Amino acid sequence: MVDLLIRNGRALSGNQIDIAVHDGKIVEIGASLGGEAREEIDAAGQLVLPGVVDAHVHFNEPGREHWEGFATGSRALAAGGGTTFADMPLNAAPPTIDRASFELKRAAGEASSVLDFALWGGLVPENLDRLEELADCGVVGFKAFMIDSGIEDFPGVDARVLREGMKIAARLGLPVAVHAEDPAIVEKCTRAIRDAGGKGVREFLDSRPPESEVEAVRVALDLAGETGCSLHVVHLSCPGAIALISAAKAGGLDVTCEVCPHHLLLNESAMFEHGAFAKCAPPLRREASRALAWEALLAGRVDCVGSDHSPAPPDKKRGDDIFTAWGGIMGCQHGFLLLLDAVLAQCPDQLSAVWEHLSARPAERFGLGARKGRIAPGLDADLVFIERRGGREIMTGELLYRHQTSPYVGREIVSRVARSLLRGRDVGLLEARGCFLPRS
Q: Quick check: 347 and 298 in contact, CB under 8 A?
């Protein structure tokens, strides 16, 4: 007898799927399983998918729980299809740049998260001698900013520091993830715009042009090739940068890249509509760039989709000067489901391939694939049940974030998470029981 038997679900392939679960693990899958179970779930009419592995969130704990914390952030992600996440090292106070700060963050996650989680370590100018201890703690990799991060205690790195950090990461066998914007290009554009009195949306968008991404990616690729470091480029918005990475892969470089739902679903018009609530860096791009990023995802030139959920209190988003407003989009509750809607509406035959970018691929890339990301015997029973019952408008009151703001409010959505399981247990019924996942 197993603990749980899920019957009549619809798999990514479109075929019926039954799933047997015991001790939190998937033990058998098939079209019509027999046997007895202590509990059964009839998933008729529902998609049963592997839970999203969101490798890019900022839940800001400890230290900035008033922006977002593990409790609110993980529940919002669970409502959006997530079952596992990797939290970024910055925006917490202190940032995760040594063993002591790592232990503080791990304890906060274990106390408050309803989902399983991994942690990134930071790569900043002053902690090169702490990367090894972070690796011993089990981080999935090191995150660096090639430009000012906007947070004083998490400074950006220049090429010299990034090179040295990559050498250490290569020796430790861990990837380096970079926020890739060229500081010289952004500074030059911003100075000219600010000197002319610019402070609006159009001026902000023009201050961070696509060529800043292209140049930064070029530098990161050169350094990765020189040091032998595994490279991951986060939240790409520029087709030219994606093309550079594709060429580097073809040349044998160990490099992957991520796009975010907001860069796939929204163009710069959303920033004119929502102001700083749609401000991010790199910024939302013109429609042609958004469409090309979507094409790159469908063509397999993109490796992962992560939310880059980056919250802040509403007062940090207000004012008549967009340059001084906090940048970051709150989107982990609806971004993945809206992406699912778009795939099912436009190219349903691509559902399996696209969903892998949200689940199996990030799990494998960041050392979690032995437990997470797929529906297969031996893996954790992390499953989401998706219902589609006609469109509805996303309302502010349904947002589970610490602050109820998002540029997705007002959009129509069809898909919703009817139920999600973490290691075979209903997330909606759980108190905090998130498990820390070291890279394996």
A: yes
Strand partners, 257: 233
Enclosing H/E stretch for 97: none
* Same domain, residue pair 307 and 410: no
In a domain, 246, yes or no: yes
Strand order in the sheet with 52-57: 52-57, 82-87, 116-119
Which residues have CB under 8 Å from 25's CB, separation 6+? Answer: 377, 378, 379, 380, 381, 423, 424
pLDDT of residue 433: 82
**Residue 186 C-alpha from the chain's centroid:** 24
Backbone angles phi, psi at 206, to 5 degrees: -70, -20
For residue 94, what pLDDT is reported? 97
Distance, in Å, from the CA atom of 174 to the CA atom of 139, rounded to the nearest integer, reads 9
Cβ proximity of 350 and 342 under 8 Å: no
- Who contacts 418 (Cβ-Cβ below 8 Å, separation ≥6)? 46, 385, 386, 387
Distance CA 422, CA 79 (A): 12
pLDDT of 78-98, one tens digit each? 999 999 999 999 999 999 999
Amino acid at 197: G
Beta strand ranges found along 23-123 (DSSP E)? 25-30, 37-42, 47-50, 52-57, 82-87, 116-119, 121-122
pLDDT digit string, tens, across residues 352-407: 999 999 999 999 999 999 999 999 999 999 999 999 988 999 999 999 999 999 99
Q: Are residues 325 and 178 in the same domain?
A: yes
Average pLDDT over residues 123-142: 98
At residue 431, the pLDDT reads 73
Pairing status of strand 412-422 against strand 383-393: antiparallel
Same structural domain, 251 and 391 = no
Percent of the chain's residues with pLDDT above 70: 100
Last residue within a domain, chosen from 365, 394, 409:
365
**What pLDDT does 320 receive?**
92
Q: 218, 228, 122: which is closest to 166 by C-alpha?
A: 228
Q: Residues 233-257: what's their mean pLDDT? A: 97
Name the residue among 291, 305, 309, 282 with its Cα closest to residue 407.
309
